[in-house]
Hints:
The chain is an alpha+beta fold and 214 residues long. It is 52% helix and 9% strand. The protein has nine helices and four strands.
Amino acid sequence: MATPPLDAIERDQLCDLFLELGPDAPTLCEGWSTLDLAAHLVVRERDPRGGLVILGGERFAGLEAKLMGRAKEKGLDALVARLRSGPPLLWKVPGVRTALNLNEWFVHHEDVRRANGQGPRDGLDRLDATLWQSLGTMGRFMVRGTDGTGVTIEAPGFGTKTVRKPKGDAAQVTVVGTPEEIVLYLNGRRDAAQVELQGDEAALTALAQARLGV
C-alpha cells in the first residue's frame, strides 16, 4: 500500500483535531478559533479569490472577512468534510503538491496542537527531511522582511543553509532547531517554536521585529 503524501497526513490529523476540539478552541493564529481556521483553509483551496486574500494583505481584509464569514455559516462539520475531500486536482500534481500544501497544513496543524497544550511530535523523520529540503527555497521567501539582516538556519543532523545573505554591513543571525521548529519560527510562530537564536544584539533585534512567513 502506497504511503500517503505528507500533506495528506497533516490534513487528516488536523481534521481529526478540529472535530475533537470543536469550533471554539484557540489557535496560534491571533484572533482565530478552530472554526475560523477551518474556514480559512476552505477559502484558500476552493475560492478563486483566496489568493488575493492570502497575498494581498490588509488591502483585502474586508474580502477575507466576507469569504470566511460565509464559510463559517456552514459549520465546522461541513467545513471539515470539505477539507477531507482533499485539495483541488491541480494541487495534487507531484512537486506542486508539496510546494503548495505541506507548509500550510503542517503549520496550521501545529497552530491548533500547540495552542491546546500539545508539544513537538517525535519520530517524524520523513516530515523533517521534506521540510528541510523545502526550506532551501521557501525559507528565502519567509525571511524576505528582515530588512538586510542575514539569516542562516541550522538543523542538527541535516546541515546548514543560508536563506538570506546580509546586505552591506548588516549582521547575520542563525536559527537552530529541528526542521519542524525552524519552519514554525520562520512562519512567525516565534513564541511556540523551540529554537535557539545565535547572533549579535542588532541581528537578534532585527529578526524579532521582522515580518516573517508567507
